[in-house]
Amino acid sequence: MADNTSLTPTLIPVAQKVSTHLRSKGGVMTLPDASALTGISLEEAKTVMTHLMSRYDCRLKLTENGDLIYDFGSSLHPRGQRTWGEWWHAVQQWLWKAFMIIFKLWITITLVVYFVIFLVILIAIIFAAMSGSDNDSSSSSSSSSSSSGGGLFNFVGDIFFAIFRWNTYNAAHSYHYETDSRGYRYRSYDPPPSTLAKVSKRKDADKSKNFVASVYDFVFGPPRYEPHPLANQQEVAAYLRKNQGIVVTTELMGLAGWTLAEAEKFMAECVVRFGGDVSISTNGVLYGDFYELIRSKNQEGDAPIEWYWDEYEAEYKLTGNSFWRNVGVGFMNMFNLAFSSAIMLFAISDPMIAEDPDGIYIIALLGGIPWVFSLLFFAVPILRYFWLIPKRRRRHQNNIRKRLMKVIYHNYQAPIALTHLLEAVNAQNKQEERLSQAIVQRMMQQLVSDLGGDIRLDEQGQQVYYFERLRDELDEAKKLRQARDNNRSLGQVIVEV
Q1: For the whole prediction, is pTM greater than 0.90?
Q2: Mean pLDDT confidence for 389-416
């Protein structure tokens, strides 16, 4: 949260008075309102309101008469502070992560125990093979055996370290594209390669997932591709630097998929974050002016500019494993469940075991603990399946929304009839699902509200969608950029410290 250091000593009590008024009388104010309330000039009122925007969430609105409204909502909400809903979501996320850590640790211990048992068996086999070998074998044969032994121990080491690699996907860099059953292409992280594939030098080693990673993903699912937390801010900054430092609200909606309310709020955040200014053009269009942001030595490090509809949302995968990999993992756990259940049933049927303290510990170790473990191993993915249903439905709706927004933004200069919209959206990509008229109409009801549009009927009684605000703002943005000096040169350095 910003402090009062951005204000002069004279304006600090003024800002406090304005914020008190906003709290008591409602969070809506214009610059003339602030000036009349405090007696400061309009320029000073603008400084105060910009300062308050840095402290509290705000929406910038323009009336039909060309007046700028600063809307702080029904109560002043500190910028960046979580709401109760966000806090509760954070608590749920924390509890889920805590459970994942505990259960992954349990899985790790279980895998290590089996690993040690199998390693002992493997060493015994190696020593037995070495003792039975011919003492007069050639040096080349010995070298080959040594090489084979080294590869074997490397293989064992890879498996051991894979047990402790809880982050089953490389979320930092590597990703690839996949296509879901409806034809939507999305990004997905690359999994760690299979140890067996690396040893056998298979060509598809980089595509075959490590079996231990498959075990973890069977329970908790693979990480879903998520953009950088500041991706929208980086993208807007790059867009501003490429487009003369000028942006309108509808462009923010097109870049990030915001609703109108979200875009107005994000515009205020950009003004604070990038040191911009809010202006009204001669044609009555509100726009953000970030001239200082385009003063640059080079733009090579700028983030790529990607419109909202050019990247579909990633799939919510249950396990991310192949069918037979899931069968293998499930069979192993089913064996443990059946074996531990048999031990517990045997213990219940024999009363003498219950009377023996040592027998109870053994039954708990070999029966009770692995039985609970095996049940959780199956229960978690089953519960996740139902938990993912609404998320998958929402993802599907968002991808449909992206397709329709693309048609709207590419045809913004004229009204769009429902029949034309339906034809255009289904002609974009033949691999993607075909949308029915009912689905398009239902989604357009929401999009018209989000984009500030309107639905009218033509002479034949067909629905026609009007997006006049979108047209006016995008056309005005082009004119403003054309009128701006394109000189971005920093000039020669005249002072060097």
Answers
A1: no
A2: 94
